[in-house]
Structures are given as C-alpha cells and as structure tokens.
Amino acid sequence: MCYETTSSEDTSCEDSASDGDSDTETEGRAGDVEPQQAGRESKGASSGEKSEDDDDDEQEASAGAAPCSQHQAHRCKPSEDFLAACQLLSEHLPEIRSTSNKHLQHVLGSISQEWFQVSSHKTSSPEVVAEYLEVLGDIQPQLLETVVNLPDRNGNTALHYSVSHSNFPVAKLLLDTGMCCLDLQNRAGYTAVMLTPLAVPETRQDMEVVMRLLKEGDVNLRAAQGGQTALMLGVSHDRDDMVRALLSCQADVNLQDEEGSTALMVACRQGNADMVRLLLAQPGCQVTLTDKGGNSALSLAHGDIAALLRAHVELSPSLSF
C-alpha cells in the first residue's frame, strides 16, 4: 500500500481565515507544496499539479511585505500594513475566533497572507522569519501564538510547510517560540510531525530538529483520511532513517489504519526485508494481527521475508497463526 499525504498546494492565504475549499493530494512529496498569493486562482489547488506561475511566485516577495533580495534577506522588515493589522488584531484576540466581523476577518486575512509568504516557502529566510517572530512577540505574546498557529484554508500551518520543505532552520525558530501546537491537523488529518518521514534532513542540526518534533509532538496520531500514522508513511516510502527515529520516539509499531494494516504489513507488501527486520526487532511487534480482509503480515509476505516472519514466531512461543 502506498500512502499519500494531503497538504494544500498553492493555497490562498487570504482565504484561510474564512474559506475552506477542496483539499489537494500530493503523493508523499509534501515538499512540493507552496502557499498561493491571495486573490489568485491556481490550477494546482484542485489538480495536485503546480500552476505555470508557481516558479515565479516563489521568487516574489509578499504583496505587502517590504521587498528584498536574497542577498539582503536579513534586512527585510514587516510591512507597515502588517504591523498596523497586528496591532489592531492584538486588541481583539479574545473575539477573533467567534466573531463574524468582516473587518476583523479581513485584518486576519491580510496578516495571514504576509505571514505565509514570509514563512512558508522552500526559500523562506530564517533571518526574516526571526524578525517577524520578534515583532509579533513584542506586540503581544498571545498575538505571536495566534500567528504561529494560523492555518491556511487547508489547515496547514507554517510548521507544516517548513517541515514539508525540509526548511529546518525555520522549523526550529517556530519551535523555539514555545507556542507551536505540534498536533494541529490539517483538513486531511496530518500534523507537521506526521510529515517528518517525508522530509530530508541534510545536517546534524536538521536531524536535531526532526528529533525535537518527534519528541514534542504525538507520533501516534492517525490521519483522518485512511488512518495512517507517521510510521506507516515512513515505511511506505522506505525511509529507514526516519523509521528508526520514529521508533526511538515510541512510535507504536502495532497501530492499524482504517483497513487494518500495520506498518509491518506495509513493509511486507513492499518486499522491504530490511524494514521488516527493523520492525520485528521492536519489543511487542505483533505478527499475527490481521486486516479487515483477514490478511496477516505472513500471508502478505513472500520468500525471505516470509521466512523472517516464521523465524520470529518460532522464537516467540506466545505467538501462533
């Protein structure tokens, strides 16, 4: 079984405060998503394909943010409109989630637009994000918490995007605020933590951020669509490194998705003997669980993998088929 993640591709940040349209499914590669500039329609929003203008969009600054070149990213500051909107919003935070006030919703939408443009692209600058976070915290800590956890219209936060894009310096900045809700699920039921098996840490510092995500979040949440876990996602994409990291952070090897499949069954279906060995080495790994079709890991296995499972059962007298 090949699991897919569902994230928003080319989502409209302005619409995030009040609009919620269709989800977009992208096969595993959550790093292919980009938030859309407000006020534009995207072919990718419904097709799962990037629009022709995406590459240009990624190079543009926010319509409201102060323009800056890549070489001068550290000089970028929040726009005056953004600051004014944040100041206004900070005075109405208690009522923002329940209000039908169109002006406040517009204010929140404009903040959302600039925030996602700054924080949620593959090339988002940690220096710029740090500047925004500092400004937000200076205005009001509760405002910082609100903006850090702002969802777009598909429920993705800046943390979802930074993990999806393997932008670990930005992910670390968000975590360092101490205000990230790591278990926020997007409309498909995925958290930022659940996207880590698809990320590509390249340095020791990157891997430290990954481990922090896995330790501080819930690694055993199941997606709303299909019920898969982060562990199943890692196994289905043959990510040995991430599977080891998940298991070290108490990922439950025996959880089952909506069809009754376990991570072990996924590994057996894919014929990944090394992954099967890794999962079988986990204390309490149950070989005899069956899915809704009555299949066990052994019935799905062939050749050497089937032999591995039989040997595991023989070494565990309490197990029987």
List strands and helices in order, with pairings.
Elements: E1 5-7, E2 11-12, E3 24-26, E4 35-36, H1 44-47, H2 54-59, H3 80-90, H4 102-119, H5 126-139, H6 141-148, H7 158-164, H8 168-176, H9 204-216, H10 230-236, H11 240-248, H12 263-270, H13 273-280, H14 297-300, H15 303-314
Parallel strand pairs: 2-4
Antiparallel strand pairs: 1-3
List the uncertain runs: 2-67, 69-74
Q: Estimate percent helicity.
A: 40-55%
CATH superfamily of the domain at 1-38 and 74-179, please?
Ankyrin repeat-containing domain
CATH architecture of the domain at 1-38 and 74-179: Alpha Horseshoe
Q: Write the CATH fold name of the domain at 1-38 and 74-179.
A: Serine Threonine Protein Phosphatase 5, Tetratricopeptide repeat
Compressed to H and E, one letter per element, the order equals: EEEEHHHHHHHHHHHHHHH
Mean pLDDT: 81
Residue fraction in strands: under 5%
Tally of strands: 4
State the major sheet: 2 strands, antiparallel
Multimerization state = single chain
Number of helices: 15
In short:
With 321 residues, the chain is mostly helical. It has helices at residues 44-47, 54-59, 80-90, 102-119, 126-139, 141-148, 158-164, 168-176, 204-216, 230-236, 240-248, 263-270, 273-280, 297-300, 303-314, and strands spanning 5-7, 11-12, 24-26, 35-36. It is elongated and about 70 Å long.
